[in-house]
Specification:
single chain, about 500 residues, mainly alpha, 21 helices, Sodium:Solute_Symporter, Sodium:solute symporter, Na/solute_symporter, transmembrane helix, transport
């Protein structure tokens, strides 16, 4: 494994070097949080694909292929479909808003009264997403270095926290581009063909496995529908995804770059399912489907190649983890903390831009430490991720899409939808179980019903707010100054 160790160490050192380089670029709030809003198509596509295809899509996608065959691709397929829908229908308008968080969008649309509650829900989602991504380090480092779970989480988490804290979105963007290339080479160009060849080709795979493994709907219609509700809709409204949309240099980049990334996700989904199916032929009696990825990499790949593919898995986890971390810190600082403490310093002078960068950097560090500690204490990744997505979709999908699509939606309707949808999801998870499908089904329906009913029963959003909203959506309004500067000029 010596050659593999060298490959991994060089990769990890490169991630830290990218963080140091990104620190030199991130001199303003815009540069630190959204890479100056000037990414081109190639970099935007690569980084967007990197963040949505994390450990769950790589290790979990192969595991689903091992368990269900080709239909195990559906989870990652629904992620790709969500990214395609976001890119084609919404991304250009979202990019033109020139905001930093989803809650700021809700404030603009509804008149400044929906941000704090939605911020808390979004913070909880991004926190748990970062935690579940960080837990995945344990699997990879166990294969690599045979270290215990806690040390693996601390090692992997610390590297992500380090480069994210140093350079913010610039560091994350640069590392994600490297991670995208490593994932493409490691998973698509190396592991996929090697796994198929080792399993004897598709003809041998069909001969060895039940026909259900080659049924496109073998995973079950209800499961696919649930994936659509959770992952496709989750792609439309997650802060971690929107924050990448904000980095686009133009409407065209946001739309077509995201479309390319979504298409890449569909290819990646099929590849993961095929690798898992091949693993089922090679290792029919593994203890857990999620062991399929590590087992086939460890036993079937030659040295050097094995290190590169494990680096690809590590890249998948790191890209999602860093994206969720900066999203969590951005929401915590901009949507929650700044509203609680006020934005004017005690001496009456406005905060400097440099202070904004330092403040966001401090929040990334603080949230990163919290994520590592929670990841060490938490064992059930699936339950944590399910809670996060159920809260996100049940509480925020309706007011966000309603604000984008329905003029009659009001602030009162949005607040009621967040509260009722979120509480319904929590209550139903307690009643049916965290992994049940009913909480997100009924929670989403309750949120929609309340949003429509309360919006129709209350006064329409005032025309001045809607006019300002339309100007921002059309891209005719300038990027807002930082909140302290606005207050200072009043």
């Amino acid at each position: 494994m010596a050659v593999d160790y060298v490959v991994i160490v060089v990769y990890l050192a490169g991630m830290l070097a990218m963080g140091w380089w990104g620190m030199r670029r991130a001199k303003s709030k815009s540069e630190f949080l959204v890479a100056g809003r000037r990414l081109g198509p190639a970099m935007y596509s690569g980084t967007m694909a990197a963040i949505v295809l994390g450990g769950a899509s790589t290790i979990g996608g192969v595991g689903l292929g091992y368990q269900y065959g080709l239909s195990g691709a559906w989870m990652v397929v629904t992620i790709g479909l969500g990214l395609l829908a976001l890119s084609v229908f919404f991304s250009a308008r979202i990019a033109r808003l020139k905001v930093y968080t989803v809650s700021e969008m809700l404030d603009l649309r509804y008149g400044g009264r929906a941000g704090v509650i939605s911020g808390v829900v979004m913070w909880a989602y991004t926190l748990m997403l970062a935690v579940t991504s960080t837990i995945a380090y344990a699997t990879i480092f166990d294969v690599l270095f045979d270290v215990n779970r806690t040390l693996a989480i601390i090692l992997g988490g610390s590297i992500v926290v380090a480069y994210s804290t140093l350079g913010g979105m610039w560091s994350i963007t640069l590392t994600d581009m490297v991670q995208f290339v490593v994932k493409t080479i490691g998973v698509l160009l190396l592991l996929l063909p090697i796994a198929v060849v080792k399993a004897g080709g598709f003809s041998e795979m069909k001969a060895q496995l039940p026909t259900s493994y080659f049924d496109p709907l073998g995973v079950g219609g209800e499961t696919i529908f649930t994936y659509v509700l959770i992952y496709t809709f989750g792609m439309l409204i997650g802060q971690d995804i929107w924050q990448r949309v904000f980095t686009a240099g133009s409407d065209r980049t946001a739309k077509w770059g995201g479309t390319i990334a979504g298409t890449y996700c569909l290819v990646y989904a099929v590849a993961g399912a095929v690798i898992g199916t091949a693993a089922k032929v090679l290792y029919p009696k593994l203890g857990s489907p999620d062991d399929a990825f590590a087992t086939i990499v460890k036993d079937e790949l030659p040295m050097g190649v094995r290190g590169l593919v494990l680096a690809a898995a590590l890249a998948a986890v790191m890209s999602t983890s860093s994206g969720a971390l900066i999203a969590c810190a951005t929401v915590a600082n901009n949507d929650i903390w700044s509203r609680l403490r006020g934005v004017i310093r005690k001496d009456g002078e406005p905060d400097e831009v440099h202070d904004e960068v330092k403040g966001n950097r401090a929040f990334i560090l603080a949230m990163g430490v919290a994520v590592i500690l929670i990841a060490i204490a938490l064992n059930d990744v699936v339950e944590a991720l399910t809670v996060a997505y159920n809260l996100l979709v049940g509480g925020l999908l309706v007011p966000i899409l309603g604000g984008l699509l329905w003029k009659r939606g009001t602030a009162q309707g949005a607040l009621a939808a967040v509260a009722v949808g979120g509480l319904a999801v929590v209550g139903l998870m307690a009643a049916y179980g965290i992994l049940a499908n009913e909480p997100v089904y009924y929670g989403l329906l309750a949120s929609l019903a309340v949003y429509v009913a309360v919006s129709l029963a209350t006064r329409p959003t005032d025309e001045a707010t809607l006019t300002a909203w339309r100007e921002r959506l059309a891209g005719r309004a300038p990027e807002p100054r930082s909140e302290p500067a606005v207050r200072a000029h009043q």
